[in-house]
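Journal club prep, notes for RB
We'll compare a predicted complex against what the paper describes. Inputs for the S-adenosylmethionine case:
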Amino acid sequence: MYCKKFGELVQGICTTSLKRDGAASRRRVFSWTSVCQRRTLLLNRRAYPAVQLRPVPNHVRACYASQSTVDPDEVKKFQALASKWWDEQGEFAALHSMNDLRVPFIRDNLMSVHGVRHPGKPLAGLRILDMGCGGGLLTEPLGRLGADVLGIDPAANSIGTAELHTFRDPELQGRVTYRACTLEELSQGLEGEGGEVGEGEEESFDAVVASEVVEHLADLDTFALCCGHVLKPGGSLFITTISKTNLSYALAIVAAERVLGIVPSGTHDWDKFITPVDLERLLESNGFSVESIQGMQYNPVSAGWSWTQSTSVNYALHAVKRKEEPPPGHTQTGPAHTGGRDAPPSGHN
Ligand SMILES: C[S@@+](CC[C@H](N)C(=O)[O-])C[C@H]1O[C@@H](n2cnc3c(N)ncnc32)[C@H](O)[C@@H]1O
């Protein structure tokens, strides 16, 4: 597969160089950005020749999933690394430092939607689902901001690590909990690997977070459907993931995995990456409005993350579950409230 991708990569570079030779005669300047933009456009055109987006009203949406989000090989990979989650210099170091961006991104967008009710604990009163929580690297800081957070992950060993770590912090007791299950199991109240059988969590969360998870799932339609099912109307969905471009192949797979060893080799499969355009289409057709998309970049020298305009490799997305539209002929009485929904998310657009 990688040979094929590498071939396409080389072909992309060559095509661009040749075109430039013709158009701009003697200039032989190579630009990764243009290669990636062209490749992304091509992929999008192939995937969606002339698709018109037609939002599916929430009331006709099926509330159960027929497919699974689980790719057993992916879960196995993370099961094997379950003891490494809290090693800040280890395999998950880049996820530790990503908290510098993703925690404020989630906090600020939720504060702009819900307002600050408790200074010092800005997310108090909110219920958040951290889907694919791993060892709880993001679950814990969200709990420290005052939210009630449920972390779920099909890798039971990771959930064990997360529980053990959270147990050490009395501030998080009762506020941060974990369950070894998938989103679809939670959504339907089915039994997870931990043996729990619960009520289906219909419309019970103010926010769902899926950070660095969607690129490990088997089925994104099921993911989007179940997110819509467990979120309250007007609830927020936060995703961080990797785009599907030539540059993401070069940086996230070749450089990060094979050359620099920032993450273990085989962590990512380029075929499972998704461009912001495709992710937005998926979410919009599953009852969400995408509010903001922001590029993120990793600096291997400082081992830190920063925001960038470019979404060609890593990016963060905030979407909101649309509220049910009133039936035709219904006239609204009283003033229309936006509940702050129309306010732009602070600082990240
Ligand atoms: C790269 S880790 C991210 C962990 C955590 N979100 C973080 O950023 O610290 C990907 C996680 O997704 C989990 N995962 C894989 N398939 C999943 C699925 N179908 N449903 C939920 N989580 C899944 C893995 O077990 C792993 O813990």
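Talking point for the session: Confidence is low (pLDDT under 50) at residues 1-64, 332-349.
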